[in-house]
Write a structure and sequence with these properties.
Helix content is about 35%, strand content about 5%. By secondary structure, it is mainly α. Keywords: Heme, Iron, Membrane, Metal-binding, Signal, Transmembrane, Transmembrane helix.
């Protein structure tokens, strides 16, 4: 009983110390990123490695469906590399002459394919 009383008094004594101005969390340091400012630029090899990580790991769950294959040229991929990457995806297109949707190899103007067959999946 005495121990409980001591703990209550101690907690009431200590808690106002955390509410004073003396307790400040550390603020983040100002970092000058390479891509900051008007003349900032991105490290293209790093962005290309990021795409590789996305392709091998993240693309199984996450989509880049609002990004076209042609946008990969902006981060340093050559025209031939973009075409090769686009062809590695099957894109649903159509309808054909009989009104059916069909799959075809992607082209640079296509958007990345969602990993899910529909919005509910």
């Amino acid at each position: 009983m005495l121990l409980r009383f001591i703990l209550i008094i101690f907690s009431l004594y200590i808690s106002p110390a955390y509410a004073t101005d003396e307790f400040h969390p550390a603020s983040p340091h100002n970092i000058n990123w390479k891509f900051s400012g008007i003349f900032g630029s991105f490290d293209k090899p790093s962005i290309q490695r990021g795409y590789q990580v996305y392709k091998e790991v993240c693309s199984s769950c996450h989509s880049m469906k609002r990004l076209a294959f042609r946008n990969l040229r902006d981060v340093g991929f050559s025209e031939d590399e973009v075409k090769t990457i686009a062809r590695s995806y099957n894109v649903i297109d159509g309808p054909n002459e009989s009104g059916e949707m069909f799959e075809r190899p992607g082209i640079p103007s296509d958007y990345f394919v969602s990993p899910f067959p529909n919005k509910e999946a």
